[in-house]
């Protein structure tokens, strides 16, 4: 393993790769096939598996969140810094998507138009939990927000276990939760447990905890790198590949899906040991998209798919390259504007307001983990 000091810049490139996979999966892949009739031509096999960009994001998150925890003195400090890192862009994205849906009549995913559905995104609480507590039929303002609910649950579980015990226990808890979520319901059903009791697995499913082992493998990769521990590195590799082999999804996974997941695990593994790959990932294009990946992720889907759906209407003379390419370019520019001119001012406004309320010190800024 190759260690260097300071920022691990190749992670930005991985974020860039992950967001490009996800964006083009939504714009040209099968997920919105009823709305978007374009395909990626010779790149279709790659685009059709672009959803694995989410697993790559989770591996990166597990890696950097353990780094962040090691820089925090208490769970409350860690949670505040993560909230302050994520909330400003989520606030902007929620407002933009809400206003877009409220003021346009374009065809598209349109999960919701109701104002109270801003609450899941702004609280980072999955609609299923809010519905269970309030009996109100909450929905996400945008379907892609689900990963943020999973991230938030991860922060709470991993953070508490880290400060209460240590990183080993915290990582083990993630793996156990992933296994219980993956196999709990079928095992209990096989054992003849009444359906009412098997519903005890549902809260874990609401938070997609079957994906927590991706986060655990990322954390293990960080500790292996930090301690130059080859045995731990091998365990991280095996966990990532094992997760790829057992992952369940809302639809049955084919062999090509498993292969794509394994490829994600192997690519992340290779980047830990290959300086050449790290240099490649740190090149301008992937690094740029990594820099804007968070706002681009939150803003590309609802608005972008709606514009593409409108553009590819039968009466439209615009070519697929113009419609998809133009939408992608517009989303990229907007995400860059949010990153450069929106995120910072909103965060400073929040910290100033909180400081005036004497809730936390003004110096409680987020640890940078882009």
Q: What general outline do the C-alpha atoms trace?
A: globular
Number of strands: 0
Structural class label: mainly alpha
Roughly how many Å apart are the termini?
Answer: 22 Å
Number of continuous helical runs: 17
What characterizes the major β-sheet?
none
Radius of gyration: 21 Å
Contiguous low-pLDDT stretches (5 residues minimum) are none
Percent of residues in beta strands: under 5%
> Residue-averaged pLDDT, rounded?
90
Helix percentage: 55-70%
Give, in order, the helices and strands.
HHHHHHHHHHHHHHHHH
Commentary on this structure:
The chain is mainly alpha-helical and 370 residues long. It contains 17 helices and no strands. It has helices at 10-28, 44-47, 53-69, 75-103, 118-123, 127-134, 146-164, 167-190, 195-198, 202-206, 212-227, 230-246, 255-273, 275-281, 284-291, 293-311, 320-356. The mean pLDDT is 90.
């Amino acid at each position: 393993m190759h260690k260097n000091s300071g920022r691990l810049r190749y992670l930005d490139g991985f974020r860039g790769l992950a967001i490009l996979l996800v964006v083009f999966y939504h714009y040209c892949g099968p997920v919105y096939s009823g709305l978007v009739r374009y395909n990626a031509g010779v790149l279709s096999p790659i685009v059709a598996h672009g959803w694995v960009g989410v697993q790559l994001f989770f591996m990166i998150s597990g890696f950097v969140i353990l780094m962040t925890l090691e820089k925090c003195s208490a769970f409350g400090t860690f949670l505040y810094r993560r909230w302050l890192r994520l909330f400003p862009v989520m606030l902007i994205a929620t407002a933009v998507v809400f206003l877009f849906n409220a003021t346009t009549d374009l065809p598209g995913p349109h999960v919701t138009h109701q104002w109270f559905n801003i609450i899941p995104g702004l609280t980072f609480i999955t609609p299923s939990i809010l519905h269970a507590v309030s009996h109100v039929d909450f929905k996400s303002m945008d379907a892609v927000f689900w990963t943020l609910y999973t991230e938030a649950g991860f922060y709470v579980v991993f953070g508490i276990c880290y400060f209460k015990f240590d990183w080993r226990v915290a990582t083990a808890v993630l793996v156990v939760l992933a296994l219980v979520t993956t196999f709990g319901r079928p095992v209990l059903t096989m054992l003849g447990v009444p359906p009412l009791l098997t519903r005890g697995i549902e809260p874990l499913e609401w938070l997609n905890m079957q994906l927590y082992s991706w986060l655990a493998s990322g954390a293990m990769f960080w500790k292996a790198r930090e301690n130059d521990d080859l045995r731990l590195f091998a365990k991280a590799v095996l966990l990532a590949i094992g997760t790829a082999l057992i992952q369940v999804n809302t639809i049955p996974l084919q062999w090509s899906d498993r292969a794509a997941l394994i490829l994600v695990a192997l690519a992340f593994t290779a980047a830990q040991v290959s300086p050449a790959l790290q240099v490649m990932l740190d090149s301008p294009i992937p690094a740029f998209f990594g820099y804007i990946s968070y706002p681009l992720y939150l803003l590309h889907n609802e608005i972008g798919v709606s514009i593409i759906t409108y553009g590819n209407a039968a009466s439209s003379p615009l070519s697929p390259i113009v419609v998809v390419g133009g939408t992608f370019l517009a989303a990229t520019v907007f995400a860059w504007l949010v990153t450069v001119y929106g995120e910072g001012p909103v965060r400073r406004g929040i910290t100033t307001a909180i400081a005036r309320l004497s809730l936390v010190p003004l110096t409680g800024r987020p640890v940078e983990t882009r």
